[in-house]
Amino acid sequence: MQNPPSRYRPATLLVHGGIERSPYGETSEALFLTSGFVYGSAEEAAATFAGTLERYQYSRFGNPTVTMLEKRLALLEGAEACRVTASGMAAVHAALFAHLKAGDRVVASRALFGACHWIVSTLLPRFGIATEFVDGTKLEQWQAALAQPAALVLLESPSNPMLEIIDINAVAKWAHAAGAILVVDNVFATPLLQRPLALGADVVVYSCTKHIDGQGRVLGGAVLGSQAWINETLHPYLRNTGPTLSPFNAWLLLKGVETLPQRLAAAQQSAARIADFLAERAEVARVWYPFRADHPQSALARAQMSGGGTLVSFELHGGKEAAFQFMNNLRLIAISNNLGDAKSLITHPATTTHMKIGSEERARLGIGDGVVRLSVGLEDTEDLISDLAEALASIRHASHDKRL
Ligand SMILES: *Cc1c(COP(=O)(O)O)cnc(C)c1O
Q1: Long-range CB contacts (< 8 A, 24+ apart) of 233-237?
Q2: Ligand 1 centroid to 88 CA: how many Å?
Q3: What domains can you pick out in the chain, each with its CATH number?
């Protein structure tokens, strides 16, 4: 269902966008926890299946609570249409498999979320689709790879976990010249900090599990693009393969997005301060935060994003041993591979999220054994900084003890 462009700003759209009230006039979005829908007559059922009557049929195809979320996310993104899925990976998988066929060629940035990397490196080739990875920050590699025809280009910016920034506008031009659509995984930036469609992308995918829920409760995914592509390419694939988001999870996500601007602003403000704090510490070899002046692509980040986001990656002196010691000594910040939660979470990518890609690929991506990724949540910034400071000091003591 296509949305008219809205005159409202994002915070308003996130509270009111897409709402469809039942005859009871409820204030909050209604939860239609139903798998099917009944028809008033056999004729009505027949007309629905013949396509002459548009109405809900079965929740694998569509559900009013799910539709409200799709409309809201489309309004926020400024996209013509949206479909939501049971997880972020279901969204990425559907966007790729709905569009591609045997004999096609895909070009992707190497710095992808682990499961996205697996789909491109391992799953697509099984179906006769050629794939090629490039270093996403090197424009000449994109240009060379896209000098040959391609069907689809996939990139993530900022990337997980090294927060690399890719020039979406430049890649979009080469992708289109090669005959490809550009799909952008916009999870780290969120729809509020970066608008890939306005930068030339054709399709945007999200894991709603992250900032969109933002409270660590449910999995969800979203795919956004033109009405024609969603209707003709994506919708038949989703309808017939069934990676459907449950209406209950859609309802939680509808309530989650209401507070996205406020949560994001608070966490981002803390993240920027924490990045500056970490950069001053002797235990920290290097900090990556897109809006810090020492980020290798800070100018590009500032040009295509309106904020640095809520993730900070940093490398500790002392490799894995120091990283583990530091993480084990955090008391407030929890160890978890998730991100975008109200609770601050830390992970050691080399032994968790990026373990399976192997040490050679990790080295290519700069994911050292001392690198940790911090997802900043909604706790008081001073409490987070104290927790980090105490855990950092505990590493110093350990290496000091060893020297004695
Ligand atoms: C989490 C994540 C995904 C996958 O989403 P799920 O909801 O876990 O399936 C894809 N891309 C990025 C960048 C992510 O952070």
Answers
A1: 233/98, 233/99, 234/83, 234/94, 234/95, 234/98, 235/83, 236/98, 237/94, 237/97, 237/98
A2: 5
A3: 10-257 (3.40.640.10), 260-403 (3.90.1150.10)
